Amino acid sequence: MMCSTCGCASGELKIEGDVAVDAQPVKVPFRPRKRVSADLHYGLGIAGTHAPGLSQRRMVEIETGVLEKNNRLAAHNRAHFGSQQILALNLVSSPGSGKTTLLTQTLLRLRGQVSCAVIEGDQQTTRDAERIRATGVAAIQVNTGKGCHLDAQMVHDAFHRLSLAANSLLFIENVGNLVCPAGFDLGERHKVAVLSITEGEDKPLKYPHMFAAASLMILNKIDLLPYLDFDMEACVANARQVNPDIDIIALSAAHGEGMDQWLDWLEAQRCA
């Protein structure tokens, strides 16, 4: 994974209410292997990526050390969430997919029914956390600086700034990025990949690690279907080509269509 070898995950981290904490990244199992004609493919070596000046073997050594640390922290988070029966979900997507709108509308619908909190990940600003707080739900903003994803240490530190009761929902809105967050275990029970239909039906094939790691794909902004050339069946087929077990929900967070199905999925996970 690129972040574990190029150093883009380090430096400039800021968690609300605290000083910077070192950020360390995690690994993804999906490795495309087929070379197409004369096109260039830098993911065919044993490291699955490329970094100038580093051999494939050295990149694997660096990656292994970094990812082992993150996995230990993620396991600690998962055990802590489990001991308090907290359902932690990691929402991943590209920028502009509608994750924050999905969250605000979800929180408004769950008000008075389930205790919720949110950890917000962005490189800069507290804008998304402020949108969450406007619903009355507690949120901690994590600014990653140059980092392009959250990691288990960041989630651990942010979680301990929240007062979340047992049997609660913890939503982790990751940094908008269809690449790096895919393999970084935060201790969540599920990754939820949010895909706006404005992004095109080919994204599960172009960014397979993300959709292979997700338990659920949410197709958002379906209110725009009449205005776009988007093939819903092809998108579903592409996602299931990468991940045959992925659940899929189509909805419009802004207009409400399909939101009941999403809330039913959340309730099923809480009861699981």
Automatic annotation (TrEMBL):
Keywords linked to the UniProt accession: GTP-binding, Hydrolase, Metal-binding, Nickel, Nucleotide-binding, Zinc
GO-annotated biological processes: protein maturation
GO molecular function: GTP binding; GTPase activity; nickel cation binding; zinc ion binding
Record domain CobW/HypB/UreG nucleotide-binding: where: 90-249
CDD domains assigned: HypB
Domain of life: Bacteria
Membership in a protein family: Belongs to the SIMIBI class G3E GTPase family. HypB/HupM subfamily.
Protein name as annotated: Hydrogenase maturation factor HypB
Taxonomic source organism: Biostraticola tofi
Lineage of the organism: Bacteria, Pseudomonadati, Pseudomonadota, Gammaproteobacteria, Enterobacterales
